[in-house]
Write a structure and sequence with these properties.
By secondary structure, the protein is of the alpha+beta class. The chain has helices spanning 28-36, 48-59, 82-91, 119-125, 131-146, 148-151, 159-168, 176-181, 188-201, 203-215, 227-241, 248-264, and strands at 20-26, 69-73, 78-80, 95-103. It folds into 2 domains: 21-106, no CATH class; 119-264, no CATH class. The chain has 12 helices and 4 strands, in the order βααββαβααααααααα. A 4-stranded mixed beta sheet has the order 1-4-2-3, covered by helices on one side. Strand 2 (69-73) and strand 3 (78-80) form a beta hairpin. It is elongated and about 80 Å long.
């Protein structure tokens, strides 16, 4: 038998538990058990909306094990992974994950310190130009296509959903130049989405509409083709000096109305969107 090693204080040194990592299924039962190990202050506050997004990814078959581990401390308490556990409980489906056990509790402040990866990061890694603006424009498009803008839903697309939307609408890339030039008046990402949607109706009209809005050239409040653009531009200019700002969704609706007036060739005397009014369709 090997002699016990002295710790210099008359006692013996205890062997420290080493961190062990393995891959296996995270079942709903195991996920619930891990969540129950947490005390009120043993982890950050649960973000139920984020857990719901992960649950949706699981249900839609988008989950993949990326070797980011579920971390459990030396006492069996969950250190990191509560949102994945909650998502599994919500989905009632098992997922493959990597587990790290015997993680020292004292390391908790160092866990998950890096910024969360976003769609713009994924687009940039794929070599997309203007990846930040593109991903934000794609987000607007995803919300529009899903009907979230109509009902006030606050959901944002997951990275996989952003990628799917870009794959389905690759020509939105062509709207980024116009989007960048409109930043004086409106959110460039919103313009990127709207220009793309308008261009699907008529490319020349879409270019003409935003050129007139940005430059103010040859627009008149009495012209059937530009009165809507005139009033939209005025609303946006007034908004830049106003204390109570128009929200982006309101600008989105007004821009569609101005576009529709140009397409219909009608003179509008003002531009507004009343509470309870149906979300305007793009013509």
């Amino acid at each position: 038998m090997r002699p016990k090693r002295s710790n210099g204080n008359g006692g013996t040194a205890r062997n420290k538990l080493s961190i062990k990592t393995r891959t296996g299924p995270l079942t709903p039962r195991r996920a619930a058990q891990l969540l129950q190990t947490q005390s009120e202050h043993s982890n950050r506050k649960l973000n139920i909306r984020y857990a719901q997004r992960l649950k949706d990814a699981i249900v839609n078959g988008e989950w993949a094990d990326n070797a980011e581990t579920i971390k459990i401390d030396e006492n069996g308490v969950l250190l990191d992974g509560q949102h994945r556990c909650q998502a599994v409980v919500l989905a009632q489906q098992s997922i493959p994950v990597s587990f790290s056990t015997n993680v020292p509790r004292k390391t908790f402040p160092t866990i998950d310190q890096s910024p969360r990866r976003k769609a713009s990061d994924a687009f940039g890694m794929q070599g997309e130009k203007n990846s930040t603006l593109l991903s934000a424009s794609v987000s607007w498009l995803w919300k529009y296509k899903r009907g979230h803008l109509f009902n006030g839903h606050q959901a944002s697309p997951r990275i996989t959903q952003s990628q799917e939307t870009l794959n389905e609408h690759p020509n939105i890339r062509n709207s980024m130049k116009i989007a960048q030039s409109a930043k004086k008046f409106m959110s460039p990402s919103m313009v990127g989405c709207l220009h793309y949607l308008f261009s699907r109706k008529n490319q020349d009209d879409a270019d003409r509409f935003f050129d007139a809005l940005i430059t103010g050239d040859s627009i008149s409040r009495t012209s059937p083709s530009t009165s809507g653009i005139y009033w939209l531009r005025k609303r946006l200019q007034d908004d830049s000096d106003a204390k109570a700002k128009l929200v982006n969704l309101e600008k989105f609706k007004l821009t569609i109305k101005a576009w529709n007036s140009m397409r219909e060739g009608v003179v509008v005397k003002n531009l507004n969107h009343k509470n309870g009014e149906k979300f305007p369709a793009i013509i």
